[in-house]
Amino acid sequence: MAAAAALAAADSPPAVPQAAGAGGPTARRDFYWLRSFVAGGIAGCCAKTTVAPLDRVKVLLQAHNHHYKHLGMTAVVCTYPLDMVRVRLAFQVKGEHTYTGIIHAFKTIYAKEGGVRGFYRGLIPTILGMAPYAGVSFFTFGTLKSVGLSHAPTLLGKPSSDNPNVLVLKTHINLLCGGVAGAIAQTISYPFDVTRRRMQLGAVLPEFEKCLTMRETMKYVYGHHGIRKGLYRGLSLNYIRCIPSQAVAFTTYELMKQFFHLN
Hints:
- The chain is mainly α.
- It contains eleven helices and two strands.
- Strands 1-2 form a two-stranded antiparallel sheet.
- The protein starts with a helix and ends with a helix.
- The relative contact order is 0.16.
């Protein structure tokens, strides 16, 4: 959701010709940033809802939960403690319930893992991973959209419903471009994601003392599991998660841009 909202913030309004009268293009620029932000937020919500069930399985894979050996496959800071607790609860399987619920998880982490600092384990790889993921994702989608509309406007594009003079990608092409953008971005940033999850799980894992910093965690995962089964463990499953997520996010955002007259 944050990524979709960021796309909305980064997407500047197009040049608007002189208005012919009241209620024309000039009026449409009113609250452009707000309408763009809402469009991005809706896109993010739709994308997150689409893939939420797969998040738990990804956590189990990334942290090498022994029950799942057979499976091959400024907002961030504020919500990070919630993500930390969510990951701890998601990692629990039958017979391994360290936490009885959300409140108990918060109390336990605070009491046993250094107070407030305990809720921010893995924040650094999270922040470092955001830049390449968001940057590559938006750049790839923007490039595919621009190239597609430039070289095959009739085949891939259609007039925007809010501005016939502007071409937009057809819905199924939007889904395809969004999925490709998500896959490429996820491949590049995935080691940071694995590192973050490992650090978030903290004391739940037996190798807790060996994974106190991002560098130590990456070194440990690489040294014990290598690249494919370590830093990229669960990537194939994550493709199933991120490809539809990004496809839905970008497609929904493009539709919301038309709905809110942002073209």
